[in-house]
Structures are given as structure tokens and as C-alpha cells.
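Exercise 7.
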Amino acid sequence: MALKETILDLQLENLEWSHIEIFDACVKTGFKNNELDSWLHILNKMKNHFLISLCYRDYSLTTIKILKRFFFHKELQSDVIRECTDIFIKTLALLYQPDTDTECKENMREFLEHLHDGTADYDSSP
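Solution. The predicted structure, written as C-alpha cells, is:
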């Protein structure tokens, strides 16, 4: 995906709103079976960017919608969990610092509940 390459080539540490909107639009249509390896590669390269975006109020909800598409895709799920475990734990540690926005913490709590319950609920709030 060209967006991934652009972000990596520019060595951006954080995603901007336009990047998140583009990723959201791309994953809304779902993943074609013949593209699953490519999407897993994209997530692997972009996972730090996505999970760090959970800590920003303006990006949190949309980032969660994107991540749900990966975490709840039955063919990708086990690979996604394996690929994201370490950075996910680091993100939780960052997110639950005292100076992190309360809304981001609440969004993450709800996302974790969805992961625990196994409910994807893509189109509404996490």
C-alpha cells in the first residue's frame, strides 16, 4: 500500500488524521482473501503507529475501528494477536500513565472488553 510506504519513507513517528482516515476507508470494505498476507504485512509495519494513535483523543476511536477489522478477521486473528502482543502491552503501559486523556483510557477499556467478549461491532463506537 502506497500510504504505508509514504509513512515509512518519511520516517513519521505518529500518524496524522489524514493517514488514519485513509486507512479507515481502506479497511471498511473488508479484506479480500488473496490480499490477507499483504494486509498482515501492512499491520506488522504500521502496528506501532496504530497503537500509539490510541493515546490521542482525536484518533482513538477511529484507530480502534481499524484495529477491530484486523483483530476480528477470523483468518488474520491469530497472526494479528501474535504480531501485536508486545507493542499492545507497551501501548497499555503508555496509555495508563496519569497524564493520558481519560477519554482515551475509556475507549481502550471498551476495546479490551470487545476483544475479551469477542464482539467486533465495527460500525459503532468501540
